[in-house]
Specification:
This protein is of the alpha/beta class. The chain has six helices and eight strands. α2 packs across α4.
Length: 200
């Protein structure tokens, strides 16, 4: 009788342990989501491409939001393009947000420094970044433009994650473009060991 009780107790302990193991291995993990926000009219092909690129590189799920317009209050001093820092400030939120526009965007670090056209800008660290296709498609194929867009978008998301500009490898995607498309073309969709170490 005592042996039978002991056997039943042992079976009960094993059943509980098995249940705990199953629970721990099947417990859902929270997934990071990046929302892609078109500013004005952006090709659905470009948006789908960005969804796939971000998911492939960072593993994040991507949700495309309905397009919203760029408003006049976001124009830069020249009134010919949009101020990237104003865009980031207006759309900054707790959600991870990749803003995409076909319009030219500019940056101005100080009152003494003139504005200059850029490919993208992102908070470091933060949740919001913006990229523009305006300077990426000049005299190149759509495939080349998409390749550039992928690098710029992943670069800006890297800043959101806290990565600074790379100073270790000219092919690293976190290299500063310095306003030249040649640097973007030189880069690979890749983090060098130093940047990857900071990210991980």
């Amino acid at each position: 009788m005592a042996r039978r009780k002991l056997l039943l107790l042992a079976l009960l302990v094993l059943a509980v342990a098995a249940a705990i193991t199953v629970y721990n291995t099947t417990k859902p993990q929270p997934q990071s989501v990046i929302y892609i926000q078109p500013l004005g009219e952006v090709s659905p092909e470009y948006l789908t491409f960005l969804q796939q690129s971000v998911h492939r590189f960072y593993g994040y799920q991507c949700v495309v939001k309905p397009a919203v317009p760029l408003t006049p209050d976001l124009l830069a001093t020249s009134q010919t393009r949009y101020e990237a820092s104003k865009i980031l400030h207006q759309f900054n939120s707790r959600q991870n947000l990749l803003l995409v526009t076909t319009q030219d965007i500019a940056h101005r670090k100080s009152a003494a420094q003139p504005e200059y056209g850029i490919f993208g800008l992102g908070y470091r660290p933060g949740t919001t970044c913006v990229v523009s296709t305006f300077r990426l498609h000049r005299k190149v194929s759509k495939a080349k433009c998409l390749e550039r867009l992928e690098k710029v978008a992943l670069h800006e998301i890297g800043h959101n994650l806290g990565l600074p500009h790379c100073t270790h490898d000219k092919h690293c995607m976190m290299q500063a473009a310095q306003g030249t498309i040649k640097q973007v073309d030189l880069e690979r969709v890749w983090f060098c060991e130093a940047c990857r170490g900071k990210f991980l």
